[in-house]
Amino acid sequence: MSDVAYRPSAAEVKELREQTQAGMMDCKRALEEAAGDMDAAKKWLREKGLAAAGKRAGRGTGAGVVESYVHATGTIGAMVEVGCETDFVARNDTFKAFARDVALQIAAGRSLQFVSEDEIPDAFRAAEIDTFRGKAANEGKPENMLDKIAEGMWNKSLVDTVLLKQPSIKPEHDGKTIETLRAELSGTIGENIEIKRFARFEVGEE
């Protein structure tokens, strides 16, 4: 990064905004910090956005899209509702691409039941942990370790049942979880992004 203050042109700011949907002032600041390097400016926006994403979590998401995916065989399909704050973002190609990726993820996840861990009913959690505890006991694990082992097995199982905890199945995402991708998009766009609900269908499945 140069020691000389960099002043981005209006065209550069506009280009970065079109590519990221971040605010004009954030784009200007990113280009200043990156001395005009567009890729570095995008990285700066992502990092800044991740830090701020949590602050946006409580903001309303009255706009958004419903995306679907149907496998080429026609036997598996999925639908997902992804919310955002404004119609402007709902029409954004990057936002819609994220929703499509999530629909694909859902279609691939036969064990998925919840969007987030917060949705899991206490009774479901207690029953699952009790099952894991019984399994550990049957395997001869020490009595004083059963609760800890069951809790560990429960946490591991969440990757299969909770959408946000799953690593993306797309290679270009380098194993990032759906929650990380959601937070990155929220940071880049500057709005709260929320996966609201989903449904998965498979021929012959009840």
Key traits:
elongated, alpha+beta, 3-stranded antiparallel sheet, 51% helix, Helicase, Ruva Protein, domain 3, Tetrahydropterin Synthase, Chain A, 3 domains, 206 residues, GTP Cyclohydrolase I, Chain A, domain 1
Question: How would you describe what is shown here?
Answer:
This protein has 206 residues and is α+β, with helices and mostly antiparallel strands. The protein has 3 domains: 10-56, Helicase, Ruva Protein, domain 3; 63-115 and 162-202, Tetrahydropterin Synthase, Chain A (2-Layer Sandwich); 121-160, GTP Cyclohydrolase I, Chain A, domain 1 (Orthogonal Bundle). It is built from 8 helices and 3 strands. It has helices at residues 10-20, 24-33, 38-56, 87-90, 93-108, 122-138, 146-161, 178-189, and strands at residues 63-70, 76-84, 194-202. Strands 1-2-3 form a 3-stranded antiparallel sheet. Helix 3 packs across helix 8 (178-189). The longest helix has 19 residues, at 38-56. The N and C termini lie far apart (58 Å).
